[in-house]
Amino acid sequence: MAVGTMTTAGRARRAAYSFALLAGCALAPLGAQAQDAAPAAKPVVLHCPALLDSVAGKMLGQSSVVIQGDRVTEVVSGYVTRPEAEVVELAGETCLPGLIDAHVHLSNEFTPTVYSDMLHFNLADWVVRSTVWAKRTLLGGFTTVRNLGDSHYETVALRDQINKGWVAGPRILTAGPAIGSTGGHADDGDGLRMDLQPDVGAHDSIINGTADAWKAVREHYKQNVDTIKIMTTGGVLDLSGSVDNSQLTEEETKALVAAAHEYGYIVGVHAHGAEGIRRAVVAGADSIEHGTFMDAQDMKLMKEHGTYYVPTIYTGTYVTEKAKGNPHAYPPAVQAKALLVGPQLMKTVGDAYKAGVKFAYGTDAGVYPHGENWKDFPLLVQVGMPAMYALQMATINAATLLKKDKDIGSVAAGKYADIVAVPGDPTKDITLMGKVDFVMKGGVVFKKGGAEQVFTSTAH
Ligand SMILES: [Zn+2]
């Protein structure tokens, strides 16, 4: 069943049709639970010694969270119970809203053999692995992710099968394949021998001109994506020479953003170079991803336009360290770019925070192993952010960027029962975010006392 934003009449009609086919399945705007995976009707009460209020940016003391089905019904100060409720004691824990990663790639991971795997693997191989990566992400405490780029819309299928209860994973908002230009970061033919470079076009998410821009977005709509990802500059891990050159014209960028907004999609923009960032911001894009070479003018424009910055900070450090540690870690063209980005990104993120740019949490997991999505937190604190702000980035800020803050991003009555816990106060020790030992998504417990709970699909 669809997860999408469904803001247009057409999408609403499409949703209504598919829900009619799934009689008895409640209409829900994000990550609806299948009836087969539905939790028992008995209420559940979580006793949390401390609870993060992500909206107010403060830590609350002893709190009870009352859950009925897949939603929170009450948040009460102190420990209470309710008739027939199952009480879950989370002694020693701090409860937080389910974490949100606004930038992942669940159908890929840069394992040591990835560049050759890309030539040997069929799509099915990646899809099978994506179910494992999705589960690792969920068990790491990330109950919602925005997937910003796949190969052939395979994460649309992953999203749907998670929502139907066949496999365990986070709520997914997926962009399908990223949209870019010929020879750009989104063009998979880069750096390959010429007979492995098909003449790709808008149908394959490669555009040249504004008509192609509209066609590519419409192709994505046709495949039932939730969001759009575009690439206005070069990138680190493709086999071309530049990380920061501009790869979409101002007109193409405006057309892509206009088309996406027309269909109710938010737009995440992969951009390292200052000019590509500027083009995206003035076009009205919703978030800048990476932003490595963002300059002062970009930061000023982002504040004026309310553009979010999703910094993927650990990925920058990760690829630089990997390249430093092994001269053959990446192909030569990638190696040179990888050495550049880590320190530059650390500096830019610190500067942008000081300049007052708004941030949402996003990691680029897939470039590094899925499930380690928490690793941005310590680096964000290292460049000068308060731990509380870093936690808000991964909860209410990311929910607001994704326009899902009515359903996720805080622990509150009416929202999904997406709740995680860590053993202690992460505002005092941010590395506790790597020790998530309780994970509930939509009222279903996937991890408890640090142990993965057996997930048995009863979907049929
Ligand atoms: Zn990415």
Describe this structure in words.
With 460 residues, the protein is α/β, with parallel strands linked by helices. It has twelve helices and 21 strands. α7 packs parallel to α8 (296-305) and α9 runs antiparallel to α10 (332-355). Mean pLDDT is 91; it is low at 1-29 and 31-36. Zinc ion is lined by residues 103, 105, 148-149, 364. Zinc ion binds at residues 103, 105, 148-149, 364.
- Beta-strand content bin: 15-25%
**The CATH C-level class name of the largest domain:** Alpha Beta
CATH topology of the largest domain: TIM Barrel
Quaternary structure of the protein: single chain
Average the pLDDT over all residues and give the rounded result: 91
Percent of residues in helical segments? 25-40%
Number of beta-strand segments: 21
- What can be said about the biggest beta sheet? 7 strands, mixed
Which radius of gyration do the C-alpha atoms yield?
Answer: 21 Å
Instruction: Assign the structural class, choosing from mainly alpha, mainly beta, alpha/beta, alpha+beta, or little secondary structure.
Output: alpha/beta
Give the overall silhouette.
globular
The CATH architecture of the largest domain can be named as Alpha-Beta Barrel
Domain count, please report it.
2
CATH-defined superfamily of the largest domain = Metal-dependent hydrolases
What is the spatial order of strands in the main beta sheet?
3-2-7-18-19-20-21
Measure the end-to-end span: 14 Å
The hetero compounds bound to this protein are: zinc ion
- List unreliable stretches of 5+ residues: 1-29, 31-36
Q: What is the number of helical segments per DSSP (H or I, 4+ residues)?
A: 12
